[in-house]
Amino acid sequence: MTALRTYRLHGLSISSPVRLAAAETGSAPDVYVTVDRTRSAPSVRGRVLADFKSPHGHRLTVTEAATGWHISLPPGVEVIADIPLRSLLIFARPDVDERLIEVLLAGPVAVAVAVLRGGTVLHASAVVRRGLGGYTVAFAGPAGSGKSTLALLLSRMGGALLSDDALCVDTAPHGVLAHSGTTASRMRHGETPLDGATEVSESVDGRWVHPGVPVGGATADLSVIALPRLSATVEEARSSRLGKTVSLAVLDGMNALPGSLHARLRRQHFEGCAHTIGSVPVVLLDVPWASDLDSAQVARSVDLALRSVVDAGEDA
Fold first, then answer.
1. 0.70 exceeded by the pTM?
2. Domain locations in the chain?
3. Which stretches of 75-165 are DSSP H helices?
4. Alpha helices in 220-294 (DSSP H)
5. Alpha helix (H) ranges present in the chain?
6. CB 107 within 8 A of CB 14
7. What are the residues whose beta carbons fall under 8 Å from the beta carbon of 244, sequence distance 6 or more?
8. CA dihedral in degrees (80, 84, 86, 90; nearest 10)?
9. CATH class for the region spanning 121-315
10. By the 8 A CB rule, do 208 and 189 touch?
11. Block means of pLDDT (10 residues each) for the chain, length 316 residues?
């Protein structure tokens, strides 16, 4: 464990003794984390709000009880939270690697807390492109769709990673705000051609971790949501804008807290998506993808396609 630090994740300031792959902040904490390796979590009975089992066999269950919230994670790690979700007590067996606690806290636990506190969190990775003609794009899609890869490639050509794999969005008077999240891209082995990548490490759960360039701010104005479709038959990236009805249906299925069973959580996500598509275009993005392609060439092609979408929206 490290000294207490406060990190910015999905619109929350989280004080934690566990190091997180997120930007530090001097803001007063919204959430306080403590870790107990000496006891087992108390038994909790209540209403199951979300229950999800990953293809790799890991299970995430969120339960609402009279005394607070219970988040059950892979064997050996459980979280008890108070009703206002200001205090998180993580119970971890002594044999659980601390790096796994770091991954779980910055990932599914932070997402669950943001959702339970009323946030809309998309299964998406986001990049901020600065400078003249800059924009902020969210690549949304299921696991393996290429969202983390494309976000990393854009960040490597002068962008900044706003969040990887999960993106909290809020409506604002001038549009939609995207909140900063994790600042490293985590990808499965063999998922992407990352020629020239440096400082790559392997995480405790078997992912390649590429440190991103932090965005340097808490939020960014979201310009476009892109649904990547990797293709070996296209030579240049091209986009096609989706209608409102299709956009809403697609984003409604991009909940970063999967397995949401309770009607309140489903309605909350649906309404958040409806507000989002009122201001932000959603496009299907065909991306050239083959083993012999240069990743920088792919990134430039994607950048041009996205700039055309943003420019078209500004001219409308």
1. yes
2. 5-117, 121-315
3. 98-104, 110-116, 147-156
4. 244-252, 263-277
5. 98-104, 110-116, 147-156, 244-252, 263-277, 295-315
6. no
7. 277
8. 0
9. alpha beta
10. yes
11. 88 96 93 95 91 77 94 92 96 93 93 96 94 89 88 87 95 92 75 54 67 74 96 93 97 92 94 96 94 84 94 68
